[in-house]
Amino acid sequence: MADKLRVGVIGCGEMTVNHGIGYMNSSKYEIVAISDLSDQAMKDYDEHFAEWDDYKAEHFSDALEMLEKSNLDVVSVGVWDIGHSAMTRAAASSGIKAVLCEKPMADTLGAANDMMLVCRRNGVKLAVGHQRRWLPAYTLAKNLIADGEIGEVSFIKVYARDGLPNYSSHQADLFRYLLSNAECTWAMGNVERETDRWARAIPIEDKALAVFGFDTGTEAMILSGLTPKHGWGAEIFGTEGMINLTLQDLRVMNGGTNGWDHRVPRGNHATPGDANFEVIEGSIEQAHAFADWVNGDATEEYRSDGESGYKALEMVHAIYESVRTHTQVQLPVKTMVHPLGVMIDDGHLPVRYPGRFDIRNRTLRGDNVTLDTENP
Ligand SMILES: NC(=O)c1ccc[n+]([C@@H]2O[C@H](COP(=O)([O-])OP(=O)(O)OC[C@H]3O[C@@H](n4cnc5c(N)ncnc54)[C@H](O)[C@@H]3O)[C@@H](O)[C@H]2O)c1
Question: What is the pTM of this model?
């Protein structure tokens, strides 16, 4: 068996705890170093993994010092989006093998391009954390579609909220995953931004309607903040049937099913219905696949590499670009800055109700913001 991969973590927040759950439970890694600007964040991170022999993290307040001193194989990047590119590039230049960077891949397509370039030049594998590609119901839906169980997929509908890159980079990635990595060829949409809303220091809209076209002939739609509905999964319509997908199960109907056929595929590490099913199953399976990819043991292509993460980001930025240019945007997107930011700076999207607020301010440390579990 290969030696355990030596992991360093940059940004000890909510999401890299999930990376740690994956790393520890897969038994293929040891976490040897963590870095955060906040000592408390690192202490809290330790608490999560105190029981694990493979957790022996040295603390660093400076991520660059950690990269220099810790002889790492793998780095998890879980700072806010605006830091993804700089941290990934620093890690990729430090002699490591691979980076697992959180979604959305970066704040701009230009920054995401830089990440891919530096990783490529240094022979470093780049993964983006679209962990739902490892949920069994998602994979069952993808396989049913690939097997023609609902004919040609004509339309997919999903609901979302809280900003296209923040929330719906996952939805864009889901469309591509369900369609076996079909290419999005065009996008058109609109946004409403009456409040000065941000998500982790990135400006977002209040509401969005996003429509995409794929080279398979499929169209897909995101309704974000337009109705009270939101959540993961999808309604998938084919020429010969339909699939209704959630994080844990799906219902499929076609000429042979005699109504809806309910399928609940088992996970390898958790059972649908278990508390935290998505985190446990998605994080551990992602960690297994990532280790196999890094070690050269993979039997399939890694499901969420940098290129795939880029395409998810590109799709949601294409919607902003459609709003900015009042056009149906053809992919690839050429605009390398954040189009919503450009519109805000240009006064193109004046807010009706002034007062900047960040929907993720509850995660800031050193203040008295209470955890609002109803509005994560
Ligand atoms: N894949 C998913 O489903 C999912 C879910 C939630 C968040 N995310 C993504 O994960 C990323 C992090 O989000 P979060 O909610 O975990 O944030 P968070 O605020 O909980 O954690 C971020 C941490 O980074 C630290 N940090 C900031 N600057 C740093 C620096 N220069 N060096 C070291 N540490 C630094 C902060 O102190 C904080 O502890 C975001 O990009 C977010 O979009 C992904």
Answer: 0.96
